[in-house]
Amino acid sequence: MKIQLLPSTFDDHGRVALEQRLTCFLINDSVTVDAGSIAIALTDEQRGSVRDIIITHPHMDHIASLPIFIDDMFGFLREPIRVYATEEVIEALEKDIFNWMVYPRFSELKNEHGPVMQYVPFRAGEEFKIGELRITAVPVNHIVPTVGLIISDGKTTVAFSSDTAETEEFWKVLNQTPRIDALMIEASFPNSMSKLAEDSRHFTPESMCKASRATVIEELNALNIPRLQVMEPGRTYEW
Fold it and tell me: What are the tens digits of pLDDT across the range 61-111?
């Protein structure tokens, strides 16, 4: 399984920068977990192959360029972009984003080949499939309805915590999973901002990390957790 954290910032020369303000993970060049930077970071080849997008929750850093991506692809699609989400998230997307004011309601539109966007609802705890991938969503502790994900292709199993503070069900399900090859944890604040992290239900390194990236990395390294590393935007990891 190949996973790439799509970059969301670039330097003056157009090269990938390390700051990560938007969230979007690309799996096997065809499926994404969230869509923060999907419209700005995919290569042309990846744009041609990504048709399945899982949304963990509707915060802007996780959906920011989803409507732009569908808009860009509108005239080229021969099959709809499939957006997988819980009913609560779909309702939020329709009410606040695809509402004919912020962006068109693409779920109601077609090009010459047919529909351009399709919602695929899923329920937490029930496995669903995207191609060869089997996915289970697990609720986590965030300020809006949010799920973490456990994804397997039959050989490799990876998990995404999504945005969360201390949570129980996600770790319980992970501990019951026979094998986890990789775990992606989103941590957003340094220890010095623990009150803000608590209020917004995010991790700090101490409680489990977007302030100064250098500070977060330093505090993570100080934990001395075996095999813990900070993902590099743009780099492809394989398991």
Answer: 999 999 999 999 999 999 999 999 999 999 999 999 999 999 999 999 999
pTM as predicted: 0.84
Looking at residue 40, the DSSP 8-state letter turns out to be H
- C-alpha 132/C-alpha 154 separation (Å) is 8
129 and 195 together in one domain: no
Residue 193: how many CB atoms within 10 A of its CB? 17
Residue 114 pairs in a beta bridge with: 111
CATH number of the domain residue 60 falls in:
3.60.15.10
Domain count, the chain: 2
The two three-digit tokens of residue 205, written as one number:
């390194």
Q: Cβ neighbours of residue 112 under 8 Å, at least 6 residues apart?
A: none
**CA trace torsion 66, 68, 69, 73 (10° rounding):** 140
Q: Which helix (H) or strand (E) holds 170?
A: helix 169-176
